[in-house]
UniProtKB/TrEMBL annotation:
Coiled-coil spans in chain: 55-82, 151-178
Protein name per UniProt: 65-kDa microtubule-associated protein 5
A Gene Ontology biological process term: microtubule cytoskeleton organization
Main location: cytoplasm
Compartment(s): Cytoplasm, Cytoskeleton
Domain of life: Eukaryota
Length: 249
């Protein structure tokens, strides 16, 4: 048998006493039975309307909870896919509130991990963009941040980007070493051949003579090619001068 919810005794007593008082007042007034029946029907309808409103409000609340639960579960699935992780969590059998209380901490943890992974990928992409810009010779790189693919925030993606960044760092170090080697060569030749060292380097790229170190030295392919050409030209000129001196001797 289906269990019926009982009205609290206090409410039942109050309704009964009020109805009894109403009957007494009607007797004192001399209200007709037809009028009494009409008023009782109105009372029943008003009570029914109140119950209907409460039921409708509760239905909407239930729908909201169902929507919240469905949205949370969908977001968890999306986050697990983006992070490339499979998070297991117990699904409670019970009320909607109990189920929501189960998935809520799981969702919060995944969102926190997503934010952390997004920042790691964004920072790595920013460094990749900066070094790539240096190598390409862009003096004024794009100031806007890199675009992060929110659908792929896996650890594998981060590892790939970090490996690429390390390769670029290695290439940057090699290029910087070459630039410094060429700069030293030009400096040595300037002392031997008595020409303006700073002017010669500035003609290649102004960053090579920036003593304030506000800007890093240019390591672009174009700068390396021009430095190579400059050093070879100076060495050739030095050799020609030596030949002239030998001829004079």
């Amino acid at each position: 048998r289906q269990r019926r919810e009982k009205m609290p005794p206090s409410s039942t007593t109050t309704c009964t006493s009020l109805l009894q008082e109403l009957q007494i007042i009607w007797n004192e007034i001399g209200e007709s039975f037809n009028e009494r029946d009409k008023m009782l029907l109105e009372l029943e309808q008003e009570c029914l309307d109140i119950y209907n409103k409460k039921v409708e409000k509760t239905r909407k609340y239930r729908a909201e909870l169902q929507g919240t639960l469905a949205q949370a579960e969908a977001e968890i699935a999306s986050l697990m896919s983006a992070l490339g992780e499979n998070v297991s969590f117990p699904r409670k059998e019970g009320s909607l509130k109990e189920q929501i209380s189960t998935v809520k901490p799981v969702l919060e943890d995944l969102l926190m991990r997503k934010d952390l992974r997004w920042k790691e990928i964004s920072e790595t992409l920013t460094q990749i963009t900066e070094i790539s810009s240096n190598i390409a010779g862009n003096d004024y790189p794009v100031s806007s941040g890199p675009e992060v693919d929110d659908s792929d925030l896996t650890q594998r993606k981060l590892d790939e980007l970090r490996a690429h960044l390390q390769d670029l760092r290695n290439e940057k170090a090699v290029r910087l070493q070459k630039v410094n080697s060429y700069v030293n060569a030009v400096h040595e030749l300037s002392e031997i051949m008595s020409f303006d060292f700073s002017k010669a380097l500035s003609n290649v790229h102004k960053s090579l003579t920036d003593s304030s170190k506000a800007h890093s030295k240019s390591i672009s392919t174009d700068t390396l090619a021009r430095l190579t050409e400059l050093v070879e030209s100076l060495k050739k000129e030095k050799h020609q001068r030596l030949l002239k001196l030998q001829g004079l001797g």
